Amino acid sequence: MRRRGWMALLMTLSLVLTGCWDQESFTNRASALIMEVSPTNRPGEYLWNFIFPNTTVTVSSLSSLPPREQLYAVAVEAPSLAKAFVRVQQKLARDLYLGQLEVVIWANTMPVARVRRLVASLNRQGQIPKSFWVLLGRPPLVPLVEVTPQEAIPSIYITRYFDCQQCQPAFLGRYFWQVWANFVTPGISPVVPVASTRTRIDRIAVYGDHGPPTIWTRPETLGWAYLTGRVSKEAVHLGTPWGYVDVGQMRGETFTQIRRLPHSVGVSSLVVVHGILASWPSGVPLTQPRLNQLRRLVERSVWQDCEAAISEANRTHTDPFGYARTLFWQEMGISPLAYSPAFTHLPIQAHIAVRVDLRDVGVGG
Q1: What pLDDT, on a 0 to 100 scale, did the predictor assign at position 334?
Q2: Looking at the DSSP assignment, which residues form a beta bridge with residue 319?
Q3: What is the pLDDT of residue 165?
Q4: Residue 248, SS3?
Q5: Which pLDDT value is given to residue 157?
Q6: What is the arrangement of strands in the sheet containing 103-107, beginning at the earlier edge strand?
């Protein structure tokens, strides 16, 4: 009797651990790939747009079906995520399923308090994976959704773009779990990439304590990327005494030390950049002194981007680098400062050094 009881328990556990509770026929499901959230003209109401793959698409119909027809959308207005689920389900003949969610996009005009509630609600949904990408856009959001023509099988451009992390000059992609972790961790400001167009994602938005996020400029975004080790294929076009010069394939790595100062977070960062001399003025000899001078010009360009990022963080009282978080971990249990609410708003006093390594055929670095 005891043995049969143990066998029954093991069978039950095996069913639970293998996820059989979530099994259902695909034909009975409406599997959303993208969810968009943006405010409406009515206070407290938001537009929720759920985008699904067209299940009538077949391999033979791909060549004749326009990309837009490979997806379909169902939009509802609701004050919360739970109510949006109910209202979109009322429009579907199949069960709403979010286990294959790839991207969530919300409007950059939404205040941080509303975004916090959205992030917390998504995190509490056990059916939704926490590894989807997040993105900000300017309303209306619908034009941002596109099926990429770069794949034989229809796929979402945004997903393919972020999945290829080494394809981008500076990787700005953020998983949902990273954004959620930043919202609940003291000492780091949440960062979300911003789409200017459906194929242009080159800036970040940084959330403070109040209001909508601050959209950083391209130089500020690049500075953040350098200081957080996210640059892999950047390029600069510089005017020199000998003419215009290009340096490409710029890849950066950063070494940072953080310490507590009386009224600020002290940061010392060494940004090491490796690049390739991509173009040089015709007829001008490439000598070692000229290469050294070019190296200094590139170092100054990178340094200016990093300084712009630090200045914007101090101006907006944010810390998208996580310097205060690191200091919080270092000071926790040692200093009462770590438990002060003002701790996460300390200004950043940074000393940034940049070292550039240029490579060129026939010239030693």
Answers
A1: 54
A2: none
A3: 79
A4: strand
A5: 75
A6: 71-78, 46-53, 34-39, 103-107, 133-137, 191-197, 200-206, 214-215
pLDDT value at residue 71: 74
Whole-number Å distance between alpha carbons of 203 and 222: 8
**Residue 139: what pLDDT?**
79
Q: Give the tokens for residue 363.
A: 């010239």
Backbone angles phi, psi at 183, to 5 degrees: -65, -30
Q: How far is Cα 305 from Cα 222, in angstroms, rounded to an integer?
A: 6
Please, are residues 248 and 330 in contact by the beta-carbon 8 Å criterion?
Answer: no
Alpha-helix residue ranges (DSSP H) falling in the chain: 2-17, 81-89, 112-124, 157-163, 176-184, 218-227, 288-315, 323-331
pLDDT in tens, 144-186: 555 544 444 456 777 888 888 778 889 999 999 999 999 998 8
Closest CA to 250 of 359, 162, 363, 351: 359
**How far are the Cα atoms of 83, 92, 299 from residue 86, in angstroms, in the given order?**
5, 10, 55
- Contact in structure between 323 and 258 (CB atoms under 8 Å): yes
What's phi and psi for 11, nearest 5 deg? -65, -40
Low-confidence ranges of the chain (pLDDT < 70): 1-27, 54-70, 142-155, 198, 332-344, 361-365
Comparing C-alpha atoms, which of 141, 94, 103 is closest to residue 122? 103
What lies within 8 Å, CB to CB, of 323 at 6+ separation is: 187, 256, 258, 265, 267, 348
The structure's pTM equals 0.83
From the number of C-beta atoms within 10 Å of its C-beta (0-12, 13-18, 19+), residue 130 rates as: middle
Could you give the angle at the alpha carbon of 326 between the alpha carbons of 164 and 104, nearest 5°? 35
Predicted confidence at residue 183, as pLDDT, reads: 94
Q: Please name the amino acid found at residue 54.
A: N
Task: Report how far residue 216's alpha carbon sits from residue 194's, in angstroms, rounded to the nearest whole number.
Answer: 9
Task: Assess contact for 324 and 346: CB atoms under 8 A.
Answer: yes
Question: pLDDT at position 176, please?
Answer: 96
The Cα angle at residue 219 between residues 215 and 224, in degrees rounded to 5: 75
Cα angle for residues 237, 238, 241 (degrees, 5° grid): 150
User: Angle, to 10 degrees, between the axis of helix 218-227 and the axis of helix 288-315?
Assistant: 100
Give the per-residue SS3 of 28-43. HEEECCEEEEEECCCC
Strand partners, 231: 170
